[in-house]
Amino acid sequence: MARLLKPTSALSFLFNTRSVLLLADLCGLISSLGLALLLRVTIGEGSLSPSLYFHLGGAIPFFLLLYAALELYPGVFLPPHVELKRLSLGSSLGFAFLNLLIFLGKQGEMYSRFVLIGGWLLSVFLVPLARYGVRTLCAKRAWWGYPVLLLAPENRIADTLVIFREQRRRGLYITGVVTLKEGETASDASLSLHLAALARPETGERLAALAKAYPGSMALVLTEDLPPQTRQEIIPLITKYFHRILVRTSAFWLRQSSLRIAFLPCGQVLTLRQNLLDPARMRVKRLLDIVFCLAGGIVLILIIPVIALCIRLESKGPIFFRHARIGSGGKIIRIFKFRTMVADAEERLRATLDADQALREEWEATQKLSRDPRLTRVGAFLRASSLDELPQIFNVLKGEMSLVGPRPVPLHEEALYGDAFELYCRVKPGITGLWQISGRNDISYAKRLETVYEYVYNWSVWLDIYIIMRTVPVVLSGKGAY
After folding, report:
1. Around Cβ 178, how many Cβ atoms within 10 Å?
2. Lesser CB count within 10 Å: N end or C end of the chain?
3. In angstroms, rounded to a whole number, what is the distance separating the alpha carbons of residues 174 and 217?
4. What is the tens place of the pLDDT at every residue in 89-110?
């Protein structure tokens, strides 16, 4: 197979992933200090010399060194919430160092505390935002990211290519594909590797040719469908020719950002940290729920009368709708929602499914209908804007739900969850979560279950913060909401 993307090497000294991310961080830091200074000049009292703050620019390289020490250049292997955590940590340490220099230089009275504290708080938000913007803008550029040579069985290739194209902004792209074949066909001249011939010299020659044809590429090997013996043979062989080898496994319990390698007297081991069993972290999660929900409750009080009036004017029935869902530990809870359906919703659903086979198949596959006949016009708007979920703030304040968590499971879907149901019951369901920012109703049911595994195994406070930040643009776009 020919290369899928070919970087423009002529401009690589100017445009590359590291330099552009560094520039984004620089812009984020300067914007943070500049905006804090502008706010201080606008609303502050007393004299202030803006030119004085230009001297603080000398400390910015230290911020960038901190980011580099935290492995943020390029940071392509970091999960988004881990990148957010490290950026926030780097910015906080940088401003702490800046304040220390001002203190030791006995210049505390010259600089405004408002500017310094405001610049720090804004940097925690603006630096990640600048990175996100740069990733989005550069995602389609040929020079963006690092090449990956994919070695996989034929049945795994198509899905992997789609995933990499959709996540192009993260900074990795498939530059070529090598098909791993179980059989052995000496005359096969296609770009493939025959597993039955791994021990032969010509196999090494082919790998050497691939490394030369795709210089600087990392090798991604999908081992899910390979026999254990083949896995043990192919990985050491590939290490002879590629500087970095990425191996994917199918075990969900291994897909954790907390996964680390440790060395014990008995040998090398994998360490897994389960944050959901840490009482201190769970108290922080609960505190975040209360703070965000109280802030959201103010908005809810203002818009409830408007939504209530619209619902009542279009159709008879209650303003709120309570639906039985499965909560933490398998306990049945009743979640609050604004009513979005007609009064005889269940009867209309049965009649629709009986009359239309295509809709019946869609319902059986996803438990959703993209054109749901039960929705009122106001209800369709509430669904598209996700405003129908706002009353669940009351469930969060009661402790039945969390602001972030897996999608609340209806009672009739318990059997569909299979092995994922036990994991689901470990946490409280959330108003938003990985499902909501991963495509919502546009993704398959199997992918929805994968988000449960990913959230439970990788939960951290920073993952919740990342999901909350990503929820805003997703809700505004209306993607997958029906």
Report:
1. 22
2. N
3. 9
4. 999 999 998 888 888 877 767 8
